[in-house]
Amino acid sequence: MRTRIAEVDVLRGFALFGISIVNTVGITGMPVDGRSGGAAYWAYETLLHQRFFPIFSFLFGVGFGLFLEAAGEKVCRPRVAMLARLGFLVPFGALHRLLQPDEVLLSYAVVGIVVLLPASFLPGRAVLALGAVVTVAAVLVTGGGSVLIPGLFLLGYAAQRHGIEKLLGLSGRCLAAVFGVGLLLAVVLNVWQVGNGSGSGTRLAAVAGLATAATYVVLILLLLRSRARGALEVLAPLGRMALTGYIGATLMIVLADHFADLGKDPAYGMAVSLGICVFLVELAFSSLWLRYAWYGPLEWVWRCLTWWDVVPIRRRRGRAAVEGG
């Protein structure tokens, strides 16, 4: 039985950290204006906004491949199971969109069905090439945003097809070299973005966002090779419960905004503080929940719908958790 890949769960949990903060700004309707935001605005734009969403999207493509591979060992038609999985993600996204108009689950489900499922019939190299072309085209034509989803999905799926374990197993020296180049590129692009006054929706901002996201990923992988691994592994439970965490964060932010009322004026400090608090609640809940269960509450419902069966959820000793769940 396949076991989960810890690094993937840690990265997914890390992505939810930034997404919790960015969604706090978006859900509350807090004004985001470069003319009045000053340094706080540019810190938000260069360190957070559109910097974690690419990681989350890339990992969705990885997860698609892992699930398809695991399903292939369980049923004779894994793509049918995958179609059911993506199809049942649609109502989750549609309901979530009532609270969060900018949510991505509905888009993820549709793009997964329209792009990833057909791509699963292609060779791995073709998926990689297509992902690169689609991503570059999205940046050049639209300036990034949600249009990046198809390309990032394909790149994540290509990474899984080529062996995600091999990529995660690169030597520390290699990762350090990649991190150095990525950090330099990200700093240059972000400084250029600030100097040029390019907000979200521009080509420069999109490229800077992708470079920063990639640098974050390599940094986390490097830290997982160090003594910091133990501290970072606390993110893994949330990574395993990403659906529950993502939707649960929206509910907490909507509730908290009744008291914080962030929609009046730019208050980056309060928004970041609220986002971090929401993330910490997600983190604590996921860690506690997974002591007694194999799946998060919404992950369990999603899994039962996918397989059209009541899947055992209570944790028992001596059984490994299934990757791609």
Automatic annotation (TrEMBL):
The keyword Membrane applies. The keyword Magnesium does not apply. It holds the Pfam family DUF418. It comes from the Bacteria. Residues 173-308 form the DUF418 domain. The chain crosses the membrane at residues 12-32, 52-72, 104-122, 128-155, 167-192, 204-224, 236-256, 268-290. Keywords: Membrane, Transmembrane, Transmembrane helix. InterPro entries: Bact_Transport_Assoc, DUF418. This is DUF418 domain-containing protein.
